[in-house]
Amino acid sequence: MRDWWTNRTKRPILLAAVSLLVILVYLWASAIKSDVPVFDVPRLFGDSLMLRYESEDGGDLLITRTRLHYQRKGGVHPNPVYRYDSADGTLEEGGGRDWDMAAGEIIKTFSTGSATDARLIVKDGRLRHWGKAIKSRTILTKGETALGVCVDSPGRLTAVFSADGRKRPVLRGWFVSAGGGYRGQHYVEFFELPSAERIGDAVRIPFTTAEGMESGCWSEDEKYFVLASHRQMRLCVIHVGHNGE
Q: Among 29, 58, 84, 239, which is 20 to 30 Å from 90 by CA?
């Protein structure tokens, strides 16, 4: 190795190899990772997510958009309905008939509840446990910056989003978005309300706010939390597993 370093011809080659190795290690360390499977949904267009079980007793979880039809390329097309099989963790495309024949309660992205005793709020990038009957406190999130919360319909559980890294502007063609977003690793954590007790460990998610990550949607029984990216046309189904499940 010393002969390589002292050789003026070979020294640049060694420096280039070391630099390339450093770059590869950095890219691997900074790559967005996911603790849950990611499904491609290339034909799922429209607004917010909408979920329901195929029967009142459960069964497969059906996933679609609140806009059941969308206009694209001069025509009106039906949005597909995706069927999530929790037994084997697979997602298959179905049709509108599956949705119409289902009997489970329909839950939409913004079908959120609110806790009366205490709740979790995000202020200045920090997660706060707040309520009239408790002493307000800050709760550390997995990511450096807390981004927002998504409460389920009964107001018993909440998902908390956080991210690593600094907020950066996002390019939109020739323009720079005023909102920007975080390009670092994003996480979702789950808490019970009103106690703010954690449920399990933080989950690394494959989407970032710089790439159009949307707020998620809870299933009716609070077992699953579905998160999607409209721009990437991908989604993931997270098993929350509270109450010992």
A: 29
